[in-house]
Write a structure and sequence with these properties.
By secondary structure, the protein is of the alpha+beta class. The protein has five helices and nine strands, in the order H-E-E-E-E-H-E-E-H-H-H-E-E-E. It has helices at about 5-20, 60-70, 95-105, 110-115, 125-140; strands at about 25-30, 40-45, 45-50, 50-60, 70-80, 85-95, 150-165, 175-180, 185-190. Strands 1, 2, 3, 4, 5, 6, 7, 8 and 9 form a nine-stranded antiparallel beta sheet that branches.
Length: about 190
């Protein structure tokens, strides 16, 4: 067992990048409203380091509102090809505007325009309405860089708990729980 869960995650993630054919960075993000009602959806992990796990989204989406009301989240990575999953729990914070700007600048132009055109999670009358909104955004930024909208940016999950699960024969799986105890990680092997 690695004493540092981030190092173990890095090893597993590197293997997933090599062996998982379709989007190893896809992760299920679970949030909850202020009243405790849960919701989950897939997002794309954009980076991870000792500060936490980062993804980007529309702050006005359901997940954005829930993270504002209740800044705790749960990530679930599942790599079927490897027979592995990782659970990550922790507090959430917004990344800096500079970090959001830097990532936004790397996105394809059409994705940047889509961030302006889509009022994420709100009802629309048709796909045609969405495409018209994209065209309007394209006209707004004709011959100039697309700026990041204020309502779009990143969140960072600061882990205080990890669980690593590895498939084993006869369902005798390996499970390791890491909990942050203020100055060190407490590690326990869990029964499958």
């Amino acid at each position: 067992m690695e004493p540092n869960p981030l190092e173990l995650f890095g090893q597993w993630y590197a293997k997933a990048e090599q062996e998982v054919k379709n989007m190893p960075e896809a992760v299920c993000l679970a949030t909850a409203s202020k009243s405790g009602r849960p919701s989950a959806r897939m997002v794309l992990l954009k980076s991870f380091d000792e500060k936490g796990f980062v993804f980007f989204t529309n702050y006005e989406s359901r997940k954005g509102h829930e993270l504002e009301e209740n800044p705790q989240a749960f990530l679930l990575f599942y790599w079927k090809e490897l027979g592995r999953q990782v659970r990550v729990e922790g507090q959430v914070e917004k990344v800096s505007a500079e970090e959001s700007d830097a990532y936004f600048a790397t996105r394809p132009r059409q994705s940047q325009l889509g961030a302006w055109a889509s009022k994420q999670s709100r009802p629309i009358s048709s796909r045609i309405q969405l495409l018209r909104s994209v065209a309007k955004s394209a006209a707004q930024f004709l011959n100039k860089p697309v700026e990041r909208p204020d309502y779009w940016g990143g969140f960072r999950i600061i882990p205080d708990r990890y669980e690593f699960w590895e498939d084993q024969q006869f369902r005798l799986h390996n499970r390791f729980d890491y909990q942050w105890k203020g100055d060190a990680w407490e590690i326990k092997r869990l029964s499958p």
